[in-house]
Known about the structure:
- The chain is α/β, with parallel strands linked by helices.
- It folds into 3 domains: 17-97, Winged helix-like DNA-binding domain superfamily/Winged helix DNA-binding domain (Arc Repressor Mutant, subunit A, Orthogonal Bundle), CATH 1.10.10.10; 150-223; 226-311.
- It is 45% helix and 12% strand.
- It has 15 helices and 10 strands.
- The chain has helices at 34-47, 60-67, 71-84, 109-126, 130-141, 157-171, 180-183, 187-190, 204-211, 226-235, 249-259, 264-267, 279-284, 298-301, 320-341, and strands spanning 87-90, 94-97, 150-154, 176-179, 196-199, 218-220, 240-244, 270-274, 290-293, 310-311.
- The chain has a 4-stranded parallel sheet, sandwiched between helices. Strands 8-7-9-10 form a 4-stranded parallel sheet, covered by helices on one side. Strands 1-2 form a two-stranded antiparallel ribbon.
- Helix 9 links the parallel strand 5 and strand 6.
- The longest helix has 22 residues, at 320-341.
- The chain is elongated and about 95 Å long.
- The model is unreliable at 1-31 (pLDDT under 50).
Amino acid sequence: MAGPGSPRKPVRGKIDEEEVPVAPTRTLxxxxxxxxxxxxxxxxxMHFGKLTPGDRAPSVRRLALRTGMNRKTxxxxxxxxxxxxxxxxxxxxxxxxxxxTQRRGAAPPxxxxxxxxxxxxxxxxxxxAPQLFATFLDVxxxxxxxxxxxxxxxxxxxxxxxxxxxxHSSLDVxxxxxxxxxxxxxxxxxxxxxxGVVTTDCHRAEIVELVSPHDVxxxxxxxxxxFPQRLLDEAHRAPILMIVRDQRFASVFLGMLKRMAAPPDxxxxxxxxxxxxxxxxxxxxxxxxxxxxxxxxEAELGAAIPGNLRRLRARWRLESGSLEQLRASLxxxxxxxxxxxx
Length: 342
């Protein structure tokens, strides 16, 4: 007959919770307190793969025999570890290793491993080294583009300001603003210190030609077409007074409306004026006029807009797809530079 200290043989065909293995600890220095010893046993068992989240924990009796501790001490330790989240007590079923033993909110290791394998497969399909792809994701999804030295180039201050504002709010980039007329005489000086130039398609070909000798990439952005379409819809109902930062914007915007097949009589319902020349027009405007004020000049106009005029509350934003494409292109180029420096 087996003595009290002899291991009990499992019943064939049944899973005995008393036989759940615990990691060997003969060569490890054990903690002295009861709760720390129990915690140590369970964590080491998980470390060596003997237990995984969701498994039934060793019974109090089994762990007491395994460690030589008093059963009451082990029971108190289990109660404390359940409160801490390491163990999950299910009345009527038993005590289990918690499925969220990692940092609260963290994904299970098996899910993280699957995600890492998918990323590695995607990198292989794209022809990128896994390290480069990992760096790209870190830059793209984090704040890796913050304070990146970029230069925005456009032919008027209205578009310059709109693009720079959105780069700041979306990418946390304070881009330098350069007029195309200032870039032409001395491109090297205008873009000195920049890692890239951002512009729209309107002048992109010319800007590429100007800066390509200086080995600085040119990135494309596009404005959302919904905004000019909304203004066209408004012009069918009432004349439009647009107040902007730079008068040069007028020819650019009207040219865009022409490319959208707006008829001449509809274009004639637009008046586009710089803010410094807008006050007389505001005072003489008929009550049927719709007023659009650029966000770049709204603060300086203050209360100068008569209350009887209809305000169009809108903002011309960058197309979200082109902004995300810019983010991805910048992140890849920055990741490539970092990997080359390693």
